[in-house]
């Protein structure tokens, strides 16, 4: 009587283990008990076969559900996974397919490679980034060949199933213990051959074209924002899916505003009288509105005044950032005789309390140098 070891116990995992845990446990045990690594001993060969059988069952959701309910009886008398020529090969190939890519696999028709993705660089103004814009772009791209409908075969003819790989796009070769799969050298993985290629596209199924595409730039985009136009890249060969077109936005520098995220920064020079006495200045925003900035009396150069909600829109969201105005006090360079007279009179009335920072600085400086 044959003793049937529980699959979960065999792999050393809980019955609630997820797919990642199951695969990880199998990987470790498969490497440990591989016959080539252990001199081909019968004990290790039997162990290797058993863990392959366990993984083959537990990796398949339907087989696992049946095993959880009925145990080994689910696969007896023709049930479940009977009739396999190479028990455990598909299971072990899953590991090597994830490690080496081209090795092993499902044996179905090879999927043709999709067309290449394309990049288009678009320059926009800060105003465009603020309001958004709709525009058209013209690009050179390969598209499906119209005479052959993208098949690559001359009109009235059809591609034939490749006789080398029988339409699978892959061929198998035995290398020691492993069965290796590679792209078919005859059809190059397409699974089909064309005896009479289309003269317009020379059997490629695609030709170069110039197309015009509409692009919608949403409000709030920033420098480096990427817009994806699905299916607008290069056409795939012989009817394979097309790639995508990625539009990278580049926002030109603005004469007035600088941007950090949704915050706009602007420099505002004001007269020294406005800085001393206080007042208001108006700054036109990107939204077309005049924003009144209140300047407090005694404002120093370099002070920042924040205007809430006057910055850039939030991309694909609600609300706006802020406008930050950096004050720069401008000292007059041209004065009339009367203005000079008034300033001289003001200087004569100074006590030092008007500018406590500078007054205190010179007092400290005198003390520091001894008098």
Description of the structure:
Residues 6-71 form the J domain. Its cofactor is Zn(2+). Zn(2+) 2 binds at residues 162, 165, 184, 187. One of its GO terms (molecular function) is unfolded protein binding. Helices cover 26% and strands 26% of the residues. The chain folds into 4 domains: 7-100, DnaJ domain (Helix Hairpins, Orthogonal Bundle), CATH 1.10.287.110; 118-159 and 194-251, Urease metallochaperone UreE, N-terminal domain (HSP40/DNAj peptide-binding domain, Sandwich); 257-333, Sandwich (HSP40/DNAj peptide-binding domain), CATH 2.60.260.20; 342-371, no CATH class. The longest helix is centred in the N-terminal third of the chain and has 17 residues, at 42-58. With 371 residues, the protein is α+β, with helices and mostly antiparallel strands. It is built from 9 helices and 15 strands. The chain is elongated, with a radius of gyration of 38 Å.
Topology:
Layout lengths: L6 H5 L7 H15 L8 H17 L2 H10 L18 H12 L17 E7 L1 H6 L1 E12 L15 E2 L8 E6 L2 E6 L8 E2 L12 E12 L8 E4 L15 E7 L5 E4 L2 E9 H6 L1 E6 L5 E6 L8 E4 L15 E8 L6 H12 L7 H13 L3
Parallel strand pairs: 1-9, 11-15
Antiparallel strand pairs: 2-7, 3-6, 4-5, 8-9, 10-11, 12-13, 14-15
Helix pairs in contact: 2-3, 3-5
Give short descriptive properties of this protein:
15 strands, four-stranded mixed β-sheet, three-stranded mixed β-sheet, Helix Hairpins, alpha+beta, DnaJ_domain, heat shock protein binding, 371 residues, HSP40/DNAj peptide-binding domain, repeat, single chain, HSP40/DnaJ_pept-bd, elongated, 4 domains
């Amino acid at each position: 009587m044959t003793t049937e070891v529980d699959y979960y116990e065999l792999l050393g995992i809980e019955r609630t283990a997820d797919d990642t845990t199951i695969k990880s446990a199998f990987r470790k045990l498969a490497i440990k008990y591989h016959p080539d690594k252990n001199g081909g001993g019968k004990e290790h060969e039997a162990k290797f076969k058993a863990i392959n059988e366990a993984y083959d069952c537990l990796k398949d959701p339907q087989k696992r559900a049946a095993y959880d309910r009925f145990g080994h009886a689910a696969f007896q008398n023709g049930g479940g996974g009977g009739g396999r020529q190479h028990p455990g090969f598909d299971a072990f190939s899953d590991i090597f397919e994830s490690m080496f890519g081209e090795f092993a696999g499902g044996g179905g028709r090879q999927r043709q490679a999709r067309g290449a993705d394309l990049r288009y660089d678009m320059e926009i103004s800060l105003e465009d980034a603020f309001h958004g814009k709709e525009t058209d772009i013209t690009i050179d791209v390969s598209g499906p060949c119209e005479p052959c409908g993208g098949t690559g075969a001359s009109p009235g003819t059809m591609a034939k199933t490749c006789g080398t790989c029988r339409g699978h796009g892959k061929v198998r070769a035995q290398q020691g213990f492993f069965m290796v799969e590679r792209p078919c050298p005859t059809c190059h993985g397409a699974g089909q051959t064309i005896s009479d290629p289309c003269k317009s596209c020379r059997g490629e199924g695609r030709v170069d074209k110039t197309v015009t595409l509409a692009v919608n730039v949403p409000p709030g985009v920033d420098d480096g924002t990427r817009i994806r136009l699905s299916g607008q890249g290069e056409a795939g060969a012989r009817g394979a899916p097309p790639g995508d077109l990625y539009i990278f936005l580049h926002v030109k520098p603005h004469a007035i505003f600088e941007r950090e995220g949704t915050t706009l920064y602007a420099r505002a020079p004001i007269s020294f009288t406005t800085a001393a006495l206080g007042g208001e200045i108006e700054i036109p925003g990107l939204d077309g509105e005049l924003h009144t900035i209140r300047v407090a009396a005694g404002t120093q150069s370099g002070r920042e005044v924040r205007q809430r909600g006057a910055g850039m829109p939030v991309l694909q969201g609600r609300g706006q950032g802020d406008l930050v105005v950096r004050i720069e006090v401008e000292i007059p360079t041209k004065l009339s005789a009367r203005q000079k007279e008034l300033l001289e009179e003001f200087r004569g009335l100074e006590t030092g309390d008007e500018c406590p920072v500078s007054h205190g600085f010179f007092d400290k400086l005198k003390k520091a140098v001894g008098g």
